[in-house]
Amino acid sequence: MKKILVLNGPNLNLLGTREPAQYGSDTLADVERLCAEAGTRLGVEVECRQTNHEGALVDWLHEAGREVAAGRMLGVVLNAGAYTHTSVALHDAIKGASVPVIELHISNVHARESFRHHSYISPAARGIIVGLGVKGYALSMDALVRLNDDV
């Protein structure tokens, strides 16, 4: 069974308590349950990880690239949080590892502060899901499965 890696960046461990009007009341544990349920429905294994450290995300993207190349993984759902708007390193890791990534944002970043309108991830991502709440995680996983079916 192939795997999808779900990566969550800084402050996503605060889901449910951080700005619930913006991000909703679901916790990270709720998101991980949603991803596990979607994985069962889609017939893929799901692994969820969260970190507040940019270098850990880079390392995990490199690892995912190796797993994709070995045929064991479909790709990554990446909610890079604030690193979306600041990290050339994540852009370079995605490109360098040749890992298919669906960039995900719970909120509509384009309806928020102007500094959130630019993404360093988007040019390297296979696709982007924005502003659909935590349901975007399942949609992102579905997208990875469907994109793999097209290959």
Which descriptors would you attach to this protein?
151 residues, alpha/beta, Rossmann fold, 40% helix
Q: What can you see in these coordinates?
A:
The chain is α/β, with parallel strands linked by helices and 151 residues long. It has a single domain, classed as Rossmann fold. The chain is 40% helix and 19% strand. The chain has five helices and five strands. Strands 2-1-3-4-5 form a five-stranded parallel β-sheet, with helices on both faces. α4 links the parallel β3 and β4. α2 runs parallel beside α5 and α3 packs parallel to α4. The radius of gyration is 14 Å and the shape is globular.
Secondary structure layout:
Layout: E1 3-8, H1 20-23, H2 28-42, E2 45-50, H3 54-69, E3 73-79, H4 88-97, E4 101-105, E5 127-130, H5 135-149
Parallel strand pairs: 1-2, 1-3, 3-4, 4-5
CATH-defined fold name: Rossmann fold
The assigned CATH architecture is 3-Layer(aba) Sandwich
User: What is the CATH class designation?
Assistant: Alpha Beta
Total number of beta strands: 5
Q: H/E series, N to C?
A: EHHEHEHEEH
Radius of gyration from the alpha-carbon trace, in angstroms:
14 Å
Shape: globular
Taken as a percent bin, the fraction of beta residues is 15-25%
Would you identify the CATH H-level superfamily? Dehydroquinase, class II
Sheet with most strands? 5 strands, parallel
Rounded to the nearest angstrom, the distance between the terminal CA atoms is 17 Å
Mean pLDDT: 93
| Uncertain parts | none
Oligomer designation: single chain
Residue share in helices? Answer: 25-40%
Strand order of the largest sheet: 2-1-3-4-5
Treating each run of at least 4 consecutive H or I residues as one helix, how many helices? 5
Supply the number of structural domains. 1
Structural class: alpha/beta
